[in-house]
Specification:
There is one protein chain. By secondary structure, the protein is an all-alpha fold. It has one domain. The chain starts with 5 loop residues before the first helix and ends with a helix. The radius of gyration is 14 Å and the shape is globular. The longest helix is centred in the middle third of the chain and has 17 residues.
């Protein structure tokens, strides 16, 4: 019997809820030989910021992604929180980079965690 870790389940749930990530997921699994949540979320950040900036009309709507992640981080599952904080919030643009304004759109739980890990923005 195979047990799915909470962080791998997070990736699976994201792809199920927001199917626009399916192509990125399939390429990730092919290239990595499996699901590496922290690595996968680099692509999620990039696609989300591109969507926020209006650079990729085919990308998943950034609002849906932020809503999903806010919902997930609010569950209090440590492994899920770790992926979202370390590999999503921490990889968002910095104040001098395009797309930084997306941090103003974070839900309350993610905004609080973002403020703790990157107090200077």
């Amino acid at each position: 019997m195979t047990t799915t870790t909470p962080s791998v389940q997070l990736v699976s749930d994201l792809v199920t809820r927001i199917p626009e990530f399916r192509g990125v997921f399939d390429a990730h699994v092919f290239n990595q030989g499996g699901v590496l949540p922290h690595v996968f979320f680099w692509d999620v950040v990039q696609d989300t910021v591109r969507s926020f900036l209006g650079e990729d009309p085919a990308a998943a709507d950034w609002r849906r992604t932020l809503d999903f992640l806010e919902e997930q981080i609010g569950r209090g599952v440590l492994a899920v929180d770790e992926v979202i904080v370390t590999s999503f919030l921490n990889d968002l643009p910095y104040p001098h980079e395009p797309g930084y304004a997306i941090v103003q759109e974070l839900g309350p739980v993610m905004a609080a965690k973002f403020g703790r890990i990157r107090p200077g923005g």
